[in-house]
Amino acid sequence: MTGVSRVVDVDGIPVSALLQEARRPRAVVLALHGGAAHSGYFDYPGRPHLSLLRTGSALGFTVLALDRPGYGSSAPHGGELAPVERRVDLAYAAVDRLLASRPRGAGVFVLAHSIGCELALRMAADERGSDLLGVEIAGIGRHHHDDAVDILGVRHNESWPRPAAGSVRDLLWNPSHLYEDDVVGGARFASPSPSYEGVVARSWPLVLPELAPLVRVPVHYSLGEHERVWRSGPAALADIASLFTASPRVVVDEQANGGHNLSIGLTAMAYHLKILSFVEECVLARASAAQERPGRAS
């Protein structure tokens, strides 16, 4: 069973998503794709072992893969969605409409990939973010890998030029043996990016240290062993973890044999199982906190 396509209207803007429901969900996992992709990234056709939607629902989690603002049905409105507040409000409203009266279990956990982590952390840093179960960010960082500095021309405060597509492909999809042959390049979930995303990419290294201290829920951070867009390794993982000073719990993980695209590589199931385990821990932590509140009857 594949995810069901859904479209809802939010103040005149259609927002699309893939939804796969569990009968009695432990929680809802809201999945936010990266740049130049759409929600199909989390439910690759014909590869059920790669699908976050299938794995999540099989383990009792409803999974909602949202087409981020400016993607999918909202693509024609991309020019209207540059203001940060507009995108955050649109995402929250879309989730409420897409889930409607559907059960959410313990609540909503946000999993995001690459530049999709910008929306995830802005949602978590918002005053509404304290209601989230937690956040997983992956394929993102604070400092670019040396290979990316050379290919993308990211140096100091220079703008980010548009490099040759083949060079970007090398960063995102090498080593290619980490992916199924038909997956490399991501043609089946590729999508044009909204214009505002160039600004997001250029400003991200400065925005991350501002957003992270505002996140007040548990955080899980993952990088692939073979990540080439962002610096990886123990020091890089610890650096990111240190930014989340208000989070009650921060866990970092380097995915063995993983590249940039963790949710679509050969280790996708291993990665998804780790994150779903973290979601389950967040579910249990919320239940425990509720029982420990003052005034609870003994």
| Largest sheet geometry | 8 strands, mixed
Strand content: 15-25%
> Strand order within the widest sheet?
1-2-4-3-5-6-7-8
Structural class, by secondary structure, is alpha/beta
List unreliable stretches of 5+ residues: 156-166
Write the element-wise H/E pattern from the N-terminal end onward: EEEHEHEHEHHHEHEH
Helix content: 25-40%
What is the count of helical runs? Answer: 8
Keywords: Hydrolase
Pfam families: Abhydrolase_6
Organism: Streptomyces mirabilis
GO molecular function: hydrolase activity
What's the gist of this structure?
This protein has 298 residues and is α/β, with parallel strands linked by helices. 33% of the residues lie in helices and 16% in strands. The chain contains eight helices and eight strands; from the N terminus they run E-E-E-H-E-H-E-H-E-H-H-H-E-H-E-H.
Descriptive report:
The chain has 298 residues and is of the alpha/beta class. It has 8 helices and 8 strands, in the order E-E-E-H-E-H-E-H-E-H-H-H-E-H-E-H. It has helices spanning 52-58, 84-99, 116-125, 146-152, 165-173, 196-211, 234-241, 268-291; strands spanning 4-10, 13-20, 28-32, 62-66, 108-113, 134-138, 219-224, 250-255. The chain has an 8-stranded mixed β-sheet with strand order 1-2-4-3-5-6-7-8, sandwiched between helices. Strand 1 and strand 2 (13-20) form a beta hairpin. The chain is globular.
